[in-house]
């Protein structure tokens, strides 16, 4: 069975995920020039390795597809972990950062391989049963065309490209209604050939369809604010963490990563979100989860999981989303109950 909230405390997958996240947090909070941080991060990486390799039978026993889970452990998690450990031993911050990010994604993939497909381990409240929900994970490719003649400068600082395609991973297990809303709009083409509405210091925003636009008919009825606290077993609806007196608690999907995907809404109404999406372009890891201005106020429905999220910093309001495509996951989209 899929474990959520406090039930997952001590579960090998959660132990591994928290340890691999701690590797990143140590360097972001302490810095890499402190000699002691390298030993502490190496210890964290070894905790991950132990949690995965010594508990392989646990993962296989609880897997939906044993062959897939075994392949993730043997061909992704383990070799990536060994690369991370080598980088930590060599005290190479550049390779450590890359290795940590890739290992974290592999650990997440391992955990999701245990989750049941097309099923939620809780019931949606009766008052929201009419809303579509995503009962699993889905992936969307978002392509943005630069309006500048130079285009986007890639990570090698030499190559330029006129377009950038970002892979977005949506988490329906922790955000079923909000992810379903976005996935439905992507499948209907609402985000094709629309401009970037805002390009601010910390976020990009898109999906504001002007009155009279032919796509206006695609805008859905507002959806409720949907928050999943890390220690809960189901989402909370229609109330911010401040109003719920839970502002210091951690979210299951926190705004703690460059490329986090959020659902915009009117500030005064938590249940007013329709089609506007924002992308975070600032690492909030230096701020404790539950202590920033986004967690508990907006819904985080997933993350950019391609290796090019840093290109978001080059996107401006002159740029255009040429295409948003559902790559997979529509089979987990349920219209309503």
SSE-based structural type: alpha+beta
Number of strands: 15
Q: For the record, what is the CATH homologous superfamily label of the largest domain?
A: Cyclophilin-like
CATH-derived topology of the largest domain: Cyclophilin
CATH architecture of the largest domain: Beta Barrel
Largest sheet: 9 strands, antiparallel
How many discrete domains?
Answer: 2
End-to-end Cα distance, whole Å, is 22 Å
Low-confidence stretches: 284-290
Quaternary structure type: single chain
Can you count the helices?
6
Q: Nearest-angstrom radius of gyration? A: 20 Å
Overall pLDDT confidence: 90
Strand order of the largest sheet: 6-14-2-5-13-11-12-8-7
List the secondary-structure elements in sequence, H or E: HHHHHEEEEEHEEEEEEEEEE
Task: Using the alpha-carbon principal axes, give the shape.
Answer: globular
Proportion of helical residues:
25-40%
CATH hierarchy class name of the largest domain? Mainly Beta
Strand residues, percent: 15-25%
Organism: Chromulina nebulosa
GO molecular function: peptidyl-prolyl cis-trans isomerase activity
Domain PPIase cyclophilin-type: 153-337
Pfam family, one: Pro_isomerase
Describe this structure in words.
With 337 residues, the chain is of the alpha+beta class. The protein folds into 2 domains: 5-112, Up-down Bundle (Four Helix Bundle (Hemerythrin (Met), subunit A)), CATH 1.20.120; 126-334, Beta Barrel (Cyclophilin). It has 6 helices and 15 strands. It starts with 11 loop residues before the first helix and ends with a strand. Mean pLDDT is 90; it is low at 284-290.
């Amino acid at each position: 069975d899929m474990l959520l909230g406090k039930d997952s405390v001590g579960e090998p997958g959660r132990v591994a995920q928290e340890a691999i996240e701690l590797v990143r947090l140590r360097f972001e909070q302490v810095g890499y020039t402190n000699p002691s941080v390298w030993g502490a991060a190496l210890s964290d990486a070894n905790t991950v390795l132990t949690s995965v390799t010594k508990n392989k039978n646990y993962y296989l026993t609880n897997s939906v597809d044993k062959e897939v889970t075994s392949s993730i452990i043997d061909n992704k998690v383990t070799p990536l972990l060994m690369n991370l450990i080598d980088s930590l031993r060599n005290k190479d911050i550049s390779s450590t950062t890359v290795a940590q990010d890739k290992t974290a994604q592999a650990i997440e993939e391992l955990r999701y391989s245990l989750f049941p497909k097309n099923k939620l381990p809780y019931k949606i409240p009766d008052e929201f049963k009419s809303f579509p929900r995503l009962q699993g994970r889905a992936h969307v490719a978002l392509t943005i065309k630069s309006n500048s003649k130079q285009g986007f400068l890639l990570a090698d600082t030499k190559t330029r490209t006129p377009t950038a395609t970002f892979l977005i991973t949506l988490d329906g297990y922790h955000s079923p209604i909000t992810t379903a809303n976005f996935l439905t709009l992507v499948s209907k083409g609402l985000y094709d050939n629309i401009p970037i509405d805002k390009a601010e210091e910390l976020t990009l925003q898109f999906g504001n369809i002007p009155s009279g636009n032919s796509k206006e008919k695609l805008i859905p009825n507002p959806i409720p604010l949907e928050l999943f606290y890390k220690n809960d077993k189901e989402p909370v609806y229609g109330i911010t963490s401040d109003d719920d007196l839970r502002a210091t608690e951690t979210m299951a999907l926190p705004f703690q990563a460059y490329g986090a995907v959020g659902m915009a809404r009117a500030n005064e109404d938590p249940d007013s979100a329709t089609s506007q999406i924002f992308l975070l372009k600032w690492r909030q890891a230096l701020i404790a989860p539950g202590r920033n201005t986004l967690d508990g106020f907006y819904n985080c429905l997933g993350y950019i999981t391609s290796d090019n999220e840093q290109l978001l910093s080059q996107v401006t309001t002159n740029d255009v989303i040429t295409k948003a495509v559902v790559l997979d996951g529509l089979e987990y989209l349920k219209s309503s109950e």
